[in-house]
Design brief:
The complex is a heterodimer of chains A (458) and B (562).
Chain A (H helix, E strand, L loop, with lengths): L5 H8 L34 E6 L24 E2 L8 H5 L6 E5 L14 H9 L4 E3 L7 E3 L5 H8 L9 E4 L10 H4 L2 E2 L5 E2 L5 H10 L9 H19 L4 H22 L24 H17 L5 E5 L18 H5 L5 H23 L2 E2 L2 E2 L4 E6 L16 E3 L11 E4 L6 H12 L23
Parallel strand pairs in A: 1-9, 1-12, 3-14, 6-9
Antiparallel strand pairs in A: 2-14, 3-13, 4-5, 7-8, 10-11, 12-13
Helix pairs in contact in A: 4-12, 6-9, 7-8, 9-11
Chain B lengths: L1 H41 L25 E2 L2 H12 L1 H6 L12 H7 L4 H21 L16 H16 L5 H18 L2 H12 L3 H4 E2 L4 E3 L2 E6 L2 H13 L5 H8 L6 H12 L2 H14 L20 H20 L6 H4 L2 E4 L1 H6 L11 E4 L13 H6 L8 H12 L24 H8 L3 H15 L13 E2 L2 E2 L3 E4 L2 E4 L1 H9 L2 H16 L5 H16 L4 H10 L1 H4 E3 L3
Antiparallel strand pairs in B: 1-2, 3-4, 4-11, 5-6, 7-8, 9-10
Helix pairs in contact in B: 1-20, 1-22, 1-23, 5-8, 6-7, 6-8, 7-8, 10-11, 10-13, 12-24, 13-14, 18-20, 19-20, 22-23, 23-24
The chains are: A alpha/beta (458), B mainly alpha (562).
Chain lengths: 458, 562
Amino acid sequence: MKPFRLHRRTMLRGMLGGSTVALGLPVLEAMLNGNGDAYANGDALPCRLVTWFFGNGCAVADVNDTGAGIRFAPAETGAGYSPTPQLQPLADAGVMEYCSVLSGFDIYAAAQHRRGHHDGVAGFFSGYPFIELPPNGANYASKFGGPSIDQVAAERLAGQTVIPSVELAISKRIVGGEGPTLQYLSHQGPDQPLAPFFDPREAWNKLFGNFTVPDDPDKPARLSALDAVREDVQRLQMRVGANDRMRLESHLDAVAQLRNQIDSLAPSCTLPPEATQTNDDVEGQEQLVAVNAVMSELLAIAFACDITRVGSIQFTGSVGYTVFDMLGLDRGHHDLTHDAAENEAVDQATIFTIGQFAVLLQALRDMPEGDGNVLDNSCILLGSDASAGLTHSVFDQPCIVAGGGGGSLVHPGVHYRSASGENTSDILLSCLQTVDPTATSAGGDLGLSTTPCSAILT
Amino acid sequence: MRRFGILGVIAALVAGCYSGTEASMTGALSAGSDGITATAGDGTDGDDGGDGDDPVPEDYDPAPVALRRLLSTQYVASVGLLLGDAAAAVADPPDDAAINGFTAVGAAQLALGSAEVDRYEASARDIAAAAVVEGTHLRYMDCLPGSPDDEPCMREFVGRFGRLAFRRSLDEDELGRYTAVGLTSATDFADFYAGVESSIAAMLQSPLFLYQVEVGEPDPDNDATRRLRGTELATRVSFFLTGSTPDAALLDAAEAGSLDDGQGLREAAFALLERDEARGALADFSEELLKLRELDGLPKDAATFPTYSPALAEAMREETRLFIQHVAFEGGDFSELFDADYTFVNNALAAHYQIPGDFGPEFVQVQLPPEQKRGGILGHASVLSVLAHVSSSSPTHRGKFVRESLLCTTIPAPPPGVSTDLPIGDGTETLRERLEQHMVDPSCAGCHALMDPIGFALESYDGVGAFRTTDNDKPIDDASELDGVSVSGAAELGAALGANEAAHACLVRNLYRHATGHIESPSELDVLSEVTAAYLGSGYDLPTALVEIVTSPAFRVVGQPL
């Protein structure tokens, strides 16, 4: 575990006089080495990891031959591939050089093929088989079998930023009835799903608003309350079973995190103005584009300010019923993906969704850092919960790894098609290594990988 | 090699879906009646069930006990009881998460994360500030502080407020800790009541407030089980029956041992059911069971359903709440849930249901027009809207709901690797015709036969529950069947459910799941069959079912924690 980068904050301690100090650049030029690609003391610039999810997969290539694959990856492999219609939004946004497309992979964690969507999302993003919760005459439900890769990264980067990770969600049409697997994208463990922020104002508050000024009169009372709570939690831990002790350990971690944030100085960079964008429906319709734009911007600034280095964005939900009304569609997305007559509509939804993914990549690219930009020092993993909703197949799910990974990801990006149905956990391990090169495995059980996907690594 | 393995799994699961389908269906249906028959024929335990301790069966194997975070409704109601309406109005707990369809189950399994703890802190501070402005903190102190750091007075407040907030008396350690929080803040601000505010904010963040702490004590008769302590039992009963924290009188009774015997517990439960909060608590349970919370922000296509609006959705929700409360507490026959020939409407809903007459914004009881074949909750626009797509009905969703939520039969997963689509038609079919085509596919038919026919009986109600006679310009065919009984429309489907003991047993199971935060173990299911028998014997008197659950060993005796 590395120490805090106290030197960055101490520089500004004297300048903080009850309000946030605005600086020209998130990372001060003076703090960098001569090349602008590392800190002056030789420490590498921070690397970030983001998972980005959309539900229900893509359109099938041919509704009369569901074995013929999905509409997503290009025909050519290697660098300089031509974008398919589904990838064209990345080209249009000028970020395709940052994107590697990975096709032909299989989710080994889902090799038992127990349940559509659950297999896809839990297996892909954690690399562990999900845990089935026996319904015994109630509704089906499941939990992640292990931490999602973003939370593995957050754990490994613990202590380096004030906020370990931030979880964001755009569409509210989420299925809550089948347990944490479908409801949440980020999981610290089976019993520790992390609820995302749907409202940009709440996300802003978490990332930028929760810092207090040193002389905040409420601060001592807040801290002493949290200290009392901590003691209660610890005493309660002595009285309960092992399972509850572990749950209470999460509670303690969260209390400690809040205490740390209240007690930390505001970060040393230009904070964005308070977000005003809501995630309320307008005349029964979601504001997907507006919310996604603000969330993407907030995440980019949070990264630039090094408030956190890990994020997740659930754009649409697993089995989610987002209505893409801006495309003239009038049915929920999951419903559409199970109607072969709507394959073209599903395809339009995919193309729109990738366009929204491109918005995040643009926001990161447009945020300067050193001699490059924040996207150069980030790894963004895009995935879904099925190759196509129509088949529930976990073979060849759509996958993009974007960003420079601090120089560890190939640039320009490539299309790598696995000829042997390699394990998607290999991709997780590659992504994890961009933020922590010492990582040697990802996933577990059937999904365990100790072999990163070398095709996307430099 | 891999591919072959996957195909093998598919074959096994498809076969499992077929046999499992039949087996689980008959299994579930007969399980209820077997259980009831066994109880009726057994005759040893149930006879004195009306007024004594129901004995704990030998080899009783209850589910493990676990901490349960308060549900958001319970949190808000508890704040209201502790500190008044103004405080409750600013209470803003994090959202609940459901597991197996129940937020109570999620609350017993999932850990609190950073987002939740942040939210609880902000909520607690807002509540404390509102309470001190409102003066409701004064309920817990008779002393007049002589100075900002008046230690005895702060201790009195913390002890009295804390006992209600934590649902038991504080020990010396806890008293000292929260008194210190209050005194530190009182000194900082040179204001005793600022200290009170800080101590309230702190105690409302304590796990002793945020969780139903059920640890229990060893059972002298059985090493494998534990008995809830008096205050733990009072808490469980209070949250189940009133949706709120126990009041001082109930805690007094618990600490005096009044709930230790079946009769005392029974009397306490009936007393709680007399309170207004019991009506709200039942409505909250019903909203979860019937998925009515999804009405908040439920997307409906404006072109297909031009009359649908958030205001209409809210009226739908209110109709069902009023109806449930009526059949539970005024009608006396809760089986009318399934087939009552009346409901409650305001002007907006009367128009939606095409009920002639003059209606205002107030809800009134009306007879249902017979030609629409409505009856019971399956004819409610609320339920029909939630169990539908954005721009159409959904026989599959409706049938799945009846199987899972009303009959407690789990539907197997769709087999992997098969296309789960609706076949492409020529555009002239009704939804029923398209679904029936896809039931020709044997890999789908096994499971869809469990669901879709139930939904076909409700095809006269569109995606927002309005009556219709055509779909895609063709006449509706809503003649169908439920497990061999011919049904057409909500009233007949409901009557068929009401005639099925499994539906009543399932209601008891669902209440129990909500009350205890777990899906019943097989052993608990056996014990609950006695509750079902008592409920049936009472002529479907819901308060009887609720009290029988509370006094059942399944409620009072818990398993060792995991």
